[in-house]
Amino acid sequence: MIEVSDLVKHYRASSGGIVRAVDGVSFTVNPGEMVGLLGANGAGKTTTLRMLATLLAPTSGTARVGGCDVATDPVGARRRLGYVSATTGVPDRLSAREILHSFGALHGLRGEALEARVDRLIDVLDLGKCADRPAGRLSSGQRQRVSVGRALVHDPPSLVLDEPTNALDVLGARDLLAFLADIRSSGRAILLSSHRLHEIENRCDRFVVIHGGRVVAKGTREAFVGEAGGLEEAFFAAIAGARAE
Length: 245
Known about the structure:
alpha/beta, Rossmann fold, 2 domains, six-stranded mixed sheet, four-stranded antiparallel sheet, 9 helices, 10 strands
């Protein structure tokens, strides 16, 4: 489970003032659930995800992954979390197999257990035909699948993805989201951010909308969308309401 409670991240601006990138955000992601984190650029989504991934230290509040506090037990949190960044690429000179081997070894996998895990990911991510090709020669969709495999190699119970379909075409995005739905059914807690609302509207169990560093709306698709007619319309209405306050 992913638990975020009153999470805050403030920065000091060059002018000396305080920038409130994340300001009291709270939500949960339960096992077997996929939650969409929505917001415009600068809303605080990536900062929130980076705190969950232990890449940024919270100013205050708490975030836990599998019961491990990201501030006081970051190693425990990392063991229980797979993280796919919107910006981190894969090494061009290494093959998909070599990348998965390397990250598996970093997580303590060895011998037959490591081989079996890598072979399994190559199979389920449909990387068999290109597993031994340098990553620099892979398509954007194949490289993204390698990134997802890298995040899953230690078999974490929770997964956090920042704009996972950005580099993918329509077919690649469909296949990745179908794969995430499949691993969600095995009991993983999945949190993802996306600007491509049409792709995730019918994939996520719940949505959380952030604006100006604060949660301005959240709920199940049925409760959140209501009579708006669609996720996009409900999202715009939530943002308009937040701006009017």
